[in-house]
Design goal:
Strand order of the largest sheet: 11-12-14-15-16-17-18-19
Structural class: alpha/beta
Largest sheet: 8 strands, mixed, barrel
CATH class of the largest domain: Alpha Beta
Distance between the termini: 38 Å
Bound molecules: ligand C2E, calcium ion
Number of domains: 3
Shape: globular
CATH topology of the largest domain: TIM Barrel
Strand content: 15-25%
Oligomer: single chain
Length: about 550
């Protein structure tokens, strides 16, 4: 078994880069306080050998080979001499499964320790950067050096130190949902907008007000001030100057941190402003928020999640729950959705709403999704082996990373590994603002034989566009859509017609979040026979599902 041999640094690294999908996570055993690796003498599998193979086969770029050398040295160094940090990471550019192009990837090494704090093993995780992250990097690379964050930080320090009698504010802002601007108006226009913002700031800000572009669409300004009204007025001025560029519609959101402790590193104030800004997201009424220390707990929560996610996976804290889907007319179970749960040893069950968005941001969702996909396949195999008539299980696919690697290949591999009929694994993807973005991938998935569900239908704004161009098999009506529209005659008509429309164009339909008998009856009356929701069953542990299936379906 590939996963079981005592691993050795170089070969493991090669495994992963060589697209051996079995080893997205791999580890080093450490003996005698030393990595079983680079420093040992070996023949065919020595690091130099591997290195030249990587080079020869052009699996990673030449530049990245050097990066890898340094990375390996740093890891060895950490093991030999001890290190306080729990992880090390670097960027390399590598070829991913099924592609010929190099993609920028994040290589992350996590150290695990024994009770004495000694490193016992290392887990590696490699993931391709999401397009948004790559975009950020590219934009920043083209950026003039005086806006370099280090210099900016120095200038901030100067503003703080040279204005002992005035207050100082760190103002961070971004274009809310900038991705949408790119999707709606095109990447070129998006780029142009960011340049416009950058150039305008140079006009609005005085020498006493340093500014910097932190990522593609996040900017920071530092300014001395005397009253809070002055800050608000300054922000409104920026806003009126920057909004409505070339008729585009977008909103700017501002987080403000007022410096209380002048001895703190400027980055801390920046972080506070950033936190305030991020807490505005989704709040339609406010676009300016001042940082308060109570906001920290939100941040801590997120950090705690990021710090523990890797070990949580290794310690089996993530589990798959299954929520049965029912036929309204027969009351039989016709399928299930696989949903991730995090059972934390101290905090208990952490709801997906808390960790999924964090994982979507940091890329760990790739790892979690693949784990859940595998669990779902395992479950189907188990049902078949136990002589229970299986039902299709649907899994969620995060669309952020759908282009980053060979999703279809990965899913097919799992179907093969567990030897299950392909129609038993169904795939849910949410609708998106950019129908072109997922169209090809959905087509590929369908071609491979998977049943495709459009998740959360009716929660976005381009559902109809997406329907027109992307070949889904089933619409999944969003639970908020059902809840909100059931209330009025007009709303009910819309649901009714959505259902009959989907039938007309040959799509299946299922309603999610069915909570009452009345809702089920109404859906059935409209011609929708499939339902998922608390009225029928909450998501249940996978072990319980077998029993449920047997008692309900007989
Ligand atoms: P979703 O894909 O829309 O999943 C359905 C959510 O609705 C689940 O929430 C489910 O528990 C909830 N739900 C089902 N019936 C009812 C009902 O009658 N009333 C109400 N109020 N809620 C109901 P859950 O499990 O908390 O998951 C939330 C979201 O987290 C999911 O929304 C999905 O977007 C994401 N998620 C969960 N597991 C995974 C995963 O493994 N991978 C990915 N990428 N996302 C996941
Ligand atoms: Ca779903
Ligand atoms: Ca859904």
């Amino acid at each position: 078994m590939k996963n079981e041999f005592p691993s050795e640094y170089g070969s493991r690294l090669v495994n992963i880069i060589m697209q051996d999908r079995e080893t997205v996570h791999f580890y080093n055993n450490i003996a005698d306080n030393k990595l079983l690796s680079l420093s040992e003498s070996f023949d065919a599998e020595n690091y130099t050998g591997i290195r030249s193979m990587l080079k020869e086969k052009k699996i990673i770029s030449d530049d990245s080979l050097n990066v890898l050398d340094v990375f390996c040295e740093r890891i060895n160094e950490g093991i030999l001499n001890g290190t306080d940090s729990n992880s090390l990471s670097t960027d390399i550019s590598a070829k991913l499964p099924g592609t010929d192009d190099f993609r920028m990837c994040h290589l992350h090494a996590f150290f695990r320790r024994d009770e004495n704090g000694r490193i016992t093993d290392i887990h590696y995780n490699i993931r391709p950067y999401a397009p948004k992250e790559i975009f950020d990097r590219e934009v920043l690379q083209n950026f003039s050096s005086d806006k370099n964050p280090k210099i900016f930080s120095k200038r901030c320090r100067h503003v703080i130190d040279s204005n002992p009698d005035r207050d100082i504010a760190f103002i961070q802002f971004d274009v809310e949902r900038f991705k949408l601007v790119n999707e709606i108006y095109g990447v070129d226009k998006g780029d142009e907008l960011l340049r416009f913002i950058n150039d305008s700031l140079a006009i609005v800000c005085t020498d006493e007000q340093p500014f910097c572009r932190l990522t593609a669409d996040v900017f920071m300004i530092v300014t001395p001030f005397d009253t809070k009204d002055e800050i608000i007025a300054f922000i409104r001025r920026i806003e009126s100057m920057l909004c409505g560029y070339k008729g585009m519609e977008y909103r700017l959101i501002f987080g403000v941190a007022v410096v209380d402790d002048r001895t703190l590193h400027t980055r801390r104030h920046g972080d506070n402003a950033s936190l305030a800004r991020q807490l505005i997201k989704g709040n339609a009424m406010e676009n300016v928020l001042f940082y308060e220390s109570s906001m920290k707990s939100e941040l801590h929560k997120k950090q705690a999640i990021e710090e523990s996610m890797q070990n949580a996976l290794l310690d089996h804290e993530f589990v798959m729950y299954l929520q049965p889907k029912y036929s309204i007319s027969t009351n039989r179970i016709i399928g299930a959705e696989a949903l991730a749960r995090w059972i934390h040893p101290e905090k208990g069950m952490i709801p997906p709403a808390e960790f999924i968005p964090v994982f979507e941001e940091n890329g760990f969702i790739l790892t979690l999704d693949r784990f859940i996909w595998e669990e779902a396949c395992k479950k189907i195999r188990e049902l078949i082996d136990n002589g229970i008539e299986p039902v299709p299980i649907s899994v969620n696919i995060s669309r952020e990373y759908v282009h980053s690697y060979d999703v279809v290949g990965e899913l097919l591999r799992l179907v093969g590994k567990y030897d299950i009929p392909i129609h038993m694994l169904e795939l849910e993807i949410t609708e998106t603002a950019d129908p072109n973005g997922v169209e090809d991938i959905v087509k590929d998935m369908k071609k491979a034989g998977f049943t495709m569900l459009m998740d959360d239908f009716g929660s976005g704004y381009s559902s109809l566009n997406m329907l027109k161009s992307t070949p889904f098999d089933v619409l999944k009506i969003d639970r908020h859509f059902l809840e909100e529209f059931m209330d009025s005659d007009r709303g009910r008509k819309i649901i009714e017609h959505t259902i009959s429309m989907s039938r007309d164009i040959g799509l299946g339909i299922i309603a999610e979040g069915v909570e009452t008998g009345e809702q089920a009856e109404f859906l059935s009356h409209c011609g929708c026979d499939s339902a998922q929701g608390f009225y029928y069953s909450k998501p249940i542990p996978a072990e319980e599902f077998d029993h449920r299936l047997k008692t309900v379906n007989g």
